[in-house]
């Protein structure tokens, strides 16, 4: 008898769904186009941080979108929710930011 694959995105102590890379990129694309992946960090559960950057409205402005998964991570950081943040920079200085969407694990959808 052929062994069935282990379901992806499950944790022993949690039923929390973890979006796939494709789902994360689809959500990031809903907020911005023509971005460059700047950083991607994963653990044994999947991606926990994915940062993309795009040019801003001026020469010195850039925009950083960051997916952050709910949980505690090998870097020592942690997040209470799965969200997409946006931060606006002028040069190297952040000038404003916000949460643009949050993942609802019950409905498996992103909410604005």
Largest sheet: 6 strands, antiparallel
Query: What low-confidence regions span 5 or more consecutive residues with pLDDT below 50?
Result: 1-13
**What's the tally of helices?**
1
Average of the residue pLDDT scores? 86
**Series of secondary-structure elements, N-terminal to C-terminal:** HEEEEEEEE
Proportion of beta-strand residues: over 45%
Please give the order of strands in the largest beta sheet: 1-2-3-6-7-8
Helical fraction equals under 10%
How many separate structural domains?
1
Radius of gyration, in angstroms, nearest whole number? 16 Å
* Amino-to-carboxy terminus distance: 45 Å
What overall geometry do the principal axes of the alpha carbons give? Answer: globular
Tell me about this structure.
- The structure is a single chain.
- This protein has 112 residues and is mainly beta.
- The protein has one domain.
- It contains one helix and eight strands, in the order H-E-E-E-E-E-E-E-E.
- The longest helix is centred in the N-terminal third of the chain and has 11 residues, at 21-31.
- The protein is globular, with a radius of gyration of 16 Å.
- It starts with 20 loop residues before the first helix and ends with a strand.
Descriptive keywords:
112 residues, mainly beta, 6-stranded antiparallel sheet, two-stranded antiparallel ribbon, 1 helix, 10% helix
């Amino acid at each position: 008898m052929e062994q069935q694959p282990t379901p992806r995105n499950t944790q022993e102590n949690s039923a929390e769904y973890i979006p796939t890379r494709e789902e994360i990129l689809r959500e990031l694309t809903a907020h911005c186009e023509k971005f460059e992946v700047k950083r991607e960090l994963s653990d044994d559960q999947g991606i926990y941080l994915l940062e993309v950057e795009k040019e801003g409205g001026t020469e010195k402005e850039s925009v950083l979108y960051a997916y952050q998964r709910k949980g505690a991570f090998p870097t020592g950081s942690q997040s209470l929710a799965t969200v997409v943040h946006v931060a606006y920079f002028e040069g190297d200085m952040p000038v404003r930011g916000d949460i643009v969407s949050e993942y609802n694990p019950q409905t498996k959808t992103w909410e604005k």
